[in-house]
Amino acid sequence: MRIDKYLWAVRLFKTRTLAADACKSGKILICDVQVKPSREIQVGETFMIKHPPVLFTYKVKAELNNRVGAKLVPDYMEDQTPPEIHEKLKLIALEKNVIRDRGTGRPTKRERRDLDDLMQ
User: Fold this and answer.
1) 3-state SS string over 64-96?
2) What is the pLDDT of residue 97?
3) Which residues are CB-neighbours of 88 under 8 A, at least 6 positions away?
4) What is this structure's pTM?
């Protein structure tokens, strides 16, 4: 099965075009080598997806013909990304939610310490 079709079928990308574009831009790696969208993927292979600042790792468990439901994805693919990476993403998302109102100026020393405590 083509790698772009597989990425779409296991719901890593919303459309097959987005999966193919990710392959063309070098975001999909197999054995640390960038792959083309037409690359055939085999059962047991491990591939990586670059989503800066992290690198996700997945293993192919089985081939499939069509797009599968979200509940069935673990039957076809195994996420081998370390848990620390997922925690890092949660922290990054949390930092984006900390927004100061416009015109309030720089945070005071106390506010800065409170923000630092919240992030840790």
Assistant:
1) CCCCCCHHHHHHHEEECCCHHHHHHHHHHHHHH
2) 66
3) 53, 54
4) 0.75
The residue to which tokens 């309030």 are assigned: 104
pLDDT at residue 98 greater than cutoff 70: no
> Over the chain, what is the mean pLDDT?
89
Helices (H), ranges, the chain: 3-9, 16-24, 73-76, 83-97, 109-119
Can the peptide bond before residue 53 be classed as cis, meaning omega within 30 degrees of 0?
yes
Find how far residue 85's CA is from the centre of its chain: 10
At how many degrees (to 10) do helices 109-119 and 83-97 cross?
150
H or E element in which residue 29 lies: strand 28-30
Tokens of 56: 């996700």
Topology of domain 1-81, CATH: 3.10.290
The predicted structure's pLDDT at residue 102: 75
Dihedral of the alpha carbons of 82, 83, 89, 95, in degrees to the nearest 10? -140
Which pLDDT score, from 0 to 100, does residue 116 have?
Answer: 80
Amino acid at 73: V
